[in-house]
């Protein structure tokens, strides 16, 4: 096997991460159907003046960018048209990241626009948005354009940190995340007595499957504790080669169930992508080679 | 690895750990109805402009307390228009989830224990205006354009605990806010 192929073989997690995250973002953008204008338009569900009043100055909001564009570029542009352009630009940036063309610059543009679109209206953001920001940031600094990309073909890629360090950074970050996912649950008494799991499965359940019939069983208690343990022990068991495969399966199952039952399918998918990137693809070739 | 890279990584992960621990402490105190003040040094670090910008552009500012420390009851809004109950209509599940996030954000200010300590008069007014906007949207999304009087009732569905369910207690629907406007 040639050296380049061998490198790709060991670092297949990088192109997987670079391709799957923007594709998921595109899918999310398309999934709104007619609802996009409810949140992002000149007449959204909550008036733009109220949204602007709650915004901080850490990132540029859509109304701020619109004012700048009107003053400097296109005085006649309407706000709705501006949002349409921003979304197109965001979509194009995501496609460029997917194919790996000027990957870093495209990731930077996508990150900037993602913050502008989804963080302008702070009340509507949820976990998915934060993990997309995180993922785009990592695509920006990791050598994601080095493999299986147009950058690689045209030799446009420049490395900031090595593949090995990148993987280590991602793994440490994910371990910290999962530890605190579990720890934050553990400090609440309701995860320890099954009450939180009961609420999740009965109140937040978007499926037609009813779990009330299990009220007299210890299912909620056990599954509550199982969730806490799977998350809190993640840093330990994902880093032991003997338990990694089982722990990964447990975590993926957890996210699949979150997606199916609570309906947070985009959140679940980004978490699945992060897990596969950090703990499946870097090891899968070692297993098959072994 | 170069020493500056090691230092940068150590600072980065230290920042992540500190932020996550601080938010865990904050949500624990919030759950207990106590006020939380970060240690002075932690506050200085976490509220430094560099930390704030880093948090925003790296997605670190939210903490990791999803569905934690406890899962709270679901909030919902009933909009009464000419004595009929309406709820906002969405074409996609994603639209509904975003709306639910907004409602949850607004109502947690109104309902959760300890929140009154955090609420300023201005936030209260802002939340009221947001709820009125939602009522207006509900009327429009249900194609009601000629309503003369809209009354908005915000509820929290206090579903039965596992213990109550086993004893066949009826679930409660708690009115937490009522707004009338023409």
Secondary structure layout plus pairing:
The complex is a heterodimer of chains A (290) and B (182).
Chain A lengths: L2 H8 L2 H18 L5 H4 L8 H7 L7 H11 L6 H21 L3 H16 L8 H15 L8 H4 L9 H24 L2 H4 L2 H8 L16 H14 L1 H4 L3 H22 L2 H25 L1
Chain B lengths: L2 H30 L7 H7 L2 H10 L15 E8 L2 E3 L6 H19 L3 H4 L2 H21 L8 E9 L3 H5 L5 E10 L1
Antiparallel strand pairs in B: 1-2, 1-3, 3-4
Helix pairs in contact in B: 4-6
Radius of gyration of chain B: 21 Å
Overall pLDDT level of chain B: 82
Quaternary state of this entry equals heterodimer
How far the N terminus sits from the C terminus of chain A, by CA atoms, comes to 16 Å
- Percent strand of chain B equals 15-25%
Percent in strands of chain A: under 5%
Order of helices and strands of chain A: HHHHHHHHHHHHHHHH
Helix % of chain B is 40-55%
* Total helical elements of chain B: 7
Q: What overall geometry of chain A do the principal axes of the alpha carbons give?
A: flat
Radius of gyration of chain A: 21 Å
Largest sheet of chain B: 4 strands, antiparallel
Structural class by SSE content of chain B: alpha+beta
Quote the distance from N terminus to C terminus of chain B: 67 Å
Looking at the structure, what is the overall shape of chain B? elongated
Structural class of chain A: mainly alpha
Mean pLDDT of chain A: 90
Write structural notes for this entry.
The complex is a heterodimer of chains A (290) and B (182). By secondary structure, chain A is mainly alpha-helical. The model of chain A has no long low-confidence stretch (mean pLDDT 90). In chain B, 53% of the residues lie in helices and 16% in strands. In chain B, strands 2-1-3-4 form a four-stranded antiparallel sheet. In chain B, helix 4 runs antiparallel to helix 6. The longest helix of chain B has 30 residues. The mean pLDDT of chain B is 82. The interface between A and B is large, with 72 and 63 residues.
